[in-house]
Design a protein that fits this description.
mainly alpha, about 65% helix, about 5% strand, binds heme C
Length: about 425
């Protein structure tokens, strides 16, 4: 029988693959157009209505691009739109979030030390918060505040800090940062879908009908694009952060995430200025380095993970119990203690260089092992990914079969 969990893991991998590819296409196109915009120069023989032009060389040919600020005198028959990169990134990201943080929410989303939530409650908060964030942001952009762009940016930042703190009060650190990234990315895609695209369509329709489009549409699109520009880099950081326990495993994770949004502004400001004027303001790198040093310092502040003692004394969640009560648990637990715990401990004792558990995965107490059943089964039962083959040589095929038997008993009732 082909294992359903293995198949599911491949689905997750495929969706992640798609997500990274579409995100590269979106961010790549976005960076390209920002750079192009800032590099445009006026020329003598430009057609009517043109604002600037740019010559580029790439892939064996020369490109000559002209930008029309409002529109060309005559609309071309064929117009290429850039929108699917953004939509596909959001859609694949939403599916990936569901696969990891909803379907495996017992492991990755819920933290019984922070909030006693049932999985469905966690899922409602997860999905609901992403939607509400956009509604608040959109209302703020449409209000009178839009006349004060700097204030609007500060307000957006304050909202992100509040969300960062809020998510960290209820979800695991890892899920909190990931959700903050998704919250931000949802605003970005919604900007494209609900604002930038519809406004652009109105302008195109006006031009085709021979009307002069209202300049306000271009202005709205500009504000939203500027927000997107500054949010891009932090979002990528937050999406990657779940691979780095130092980023999410401290009680200051919410401050780390907030500071990252500032680096998004300092780094983008350098490149934006450089594309426009030929040189960038170097002080932005000094600020970025200072921010990163603060982040690195915060990250080694006491880890937020429960202590071994807390983990040993806390009552098992129903999910954990279903694995701890399954047949073969004791044998599997013994295998894990003997082959995994030296590294995957709150205070690893594998060697002096290992200061925290790899990936923040703890496999010490019965609760730990029950909670991580799926991961243990995939990493050490079905595959030989763990333990690292050169580090631990005591793991036998029989040990792996014990893990497989235990996991299957718990999930399928198979012996
Ligand atoms: C010698 C130290 C060591 C031992 C022993 C060890 N691991 Fe790991 N484990 C690691 C490292 C290092 C990583 C991070 C790998 C990476 O970043 O790709 C890791 C990662 C993991 C992950 C997370 C994988 C992911 O992609 O998120 C799981 C789950 C895991 N190990 C389970 C186990 C199990 C089960 C055992 C025992 C059968 C075990 N490990 C034994 C060092 C160890």
């Amino acid at each position: 029988m082909y294992d359903y969990l293995a198949l599911w893991d491949w689905v997750a991998f495929a969706v992640r693959w798609l997500h990274v590819i579409t995100a590269m296409a979106w961010i790549g196109a976005s960076f390209y157009f920002i750079a192009l915009d800032l590099m445009l120069k006026p020329a003598e023989d430009m057609p009517e209505g043109a604002y600037g032009e740019e010559w580029e060389v790439h892939g064996g040919g020369f490109y000559h691009t002209t930008k029309y600020l409002v529109a060309p005198a005559r609309m071309p028959e064929h117009l290429t739109w850039h929108k699917w990169q953004s939509y596909m990134t959001w859609l694949s990201g939403a599916v990936l979030l569901m696969i990891i943080y909803w379907v495996s929410g017992e492991i990755y989303l819920l933290d019984p030390n922070k909030a006693e939530l049932a999985l469905w409650q966690g899922i409602v908060i997860s999905g609901g918060s992403l939607t509400i964030g956009w509604l608040i942001y959109d209302a703020a952009c449409k209000s009178k505040l839009s006349e004060h762009p700097t204030f609007l940016m500060l307000l957006l930042f304050a909202m992100l800090v509040a969300m960062s703190w809020g998510y960290n009060q209820i979800f695991t650190g890892r899920a909190a940062l990931l959700h903050l990234g998704a919250f931000t990315a949802t605003i970005m895609t919604a900007n494209v879908f609900f604002q930038i695209m519809p406004n652009q369509r109105i302008v195109v329709a006006d031009l085709k009908a021979g009307r002069t489009p209202d300049a306000k549409y271009g202005k709205i699109a500009k504000v939203r694009s500027t927000h997107n520009n500054y949010l891009t880099l932090p979002v990528v950081f937050l999406m990657l952060s779940n691979h780095y326990p130092l980023a999410f495993g401290t009680e200051y994770a919410w401050i780390i995430a907030s500071l990252i949004f500032l680096t998004g502004v300092t780094i983008r400001h350098y490149f934006n200025t450089m594309h426009a004027t030929g040189t960038g303001p170097h002080w932005t790198w000094a600020v970025t380095v200072i921010l990163m040093v603060i982040i690195a310092w915060l990250s080694v502040a006491p880890m937020q993970f429960e202590t071994s003692e807390e983990a040993e004394t806390r009552a098992l969640t129903p999910y954990e119990k279903s694995f701890a009560d399954a047949e073969g648990f004791e044998e599997a637990y013994r295998v894990v203690l003997g082959n995994c715990s030296m590294c995957h401990a709150r205070e690893p004792f594998y060697d002096d260089n290992m200061l925290w558990a790899p990936r923040g995965v703890h496999l010490e107490t019965q609760a730990d092992v029950a909670r991580q059943a799926k991961a243990i089964y995939l990493q050490a039962g079905l595959s030989h990914a763990m333990p690292p083959p050169n580090a631990v040589r005591t793991m036998t095929e029989e040990n792996r079969r014990a893990i497989v038997a235990w996991y299957r008993d718990a999930t399928l009732g198979e012996k």
